[in-house]
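anyone seen this seq b4? input:
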Amino acid sequence: MGPMGPGFPLERLIRVVHGGDRGDRWLARHRGQRPYFACVLGFTETALLPGISAAGASPDDRRHTALADGEFLIAGPQVRPRYPLPPLDAGVSPAAISRAIVTALDIPTCLMDAGLPEPLPVPAIALAGAQTARCLSTGQALDRAAVDQLVAAGLEWGDRLGRQAGPRGYVIVGECVVGGTTTALGVLRALGYAADGLVNSSHPQCNHGQKAALVAQGLARSALKIPAPPRDAIAALGDPMQAAAAAIALAASRHGGVLLAGGTQMLAVYALARAIAQREQRPWHPEAIAIGTTRWVIDDPSASAQRLAALLTEEDDAPCLLASELNFSGASLPALRAYEAGFVKEGVGAGGCAIAASLYGGWDSDGILAAIETLLHTPPAKS
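predicted toks r here
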């Protein structure tokens, strides 16, 4: 099956994992609406540690993963890309999922450089304050001034994108930060949440012990008092994407919908957005924001995005967590079937784009898979 028409049953394609009625209302409001996709790219030296991530087979591969994913998202397959997609232990970059969807459905897309080790070879918005992050174990991941600039830039762009999407439209905010689930744990712990054992990983079995040890080092070396102010938490243990994405979500929510496209990384971004709004008394509309990911993240037996969403729930604010029921078990390519074995799971806005494919395009899982396989079988263009 492919497109299912305006009357297709959404519950077969998109699962409301947490947030109940808020999730149902968010889906109903944005059904049939074409989104705008902004993918925020960043880098943390945490990515260079052995075994920390499967998003690149070697430290040098992981240094360039976000650059390669960004280039592929915008330019697609090329004969001579400046940054080829890195070899993975298994699977293929989730940029292929997002690229296939945004091109087939003509979804407007932009890259935002929040801090990369080298310039992107495709058009991108350079955010003020862009800075690569030091390893979170230092307890001094980012300069506080850079965090403040990234938040200011995110607020400006969130306002701009939200106005562009309009009151019934929505902005998809994606990310690519290798090592980002570890920095997610770092900022969650700094904010006072007991999130150990809950965040996901690109590995089939999450490396919780390694993550927890790095976060403990970072907390011990920082000057934070827990719970820490959100900007201080990012500066000590975070990454540049988090500062920008949280601010984009805050500002865009005042105009229309926001879909934070990712798993536990974007739950951490939601927690940061709420903490910034509360501490700085910034107006926002939390009910306009949903976190959208893949079922591979939700069904990961070695982590629990659902329990993390419950941990972040406050009396009047239950984060809305959605999951695309995307399934690659019938894929013809082994690299795609690897997702069903627990590899990769998410990234580059893949889960959010898959949700948009169902909401806007009326696509079921087979339709999305067909678009992805068509892309991966397409001869590369001469760059």
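Residues 10-377 form a domain with the Rossmann fold fold (CATH 3.40.50.10210). Confidence is low (pLDDT under 50) at residues 1-6. kinda curious what u guys think
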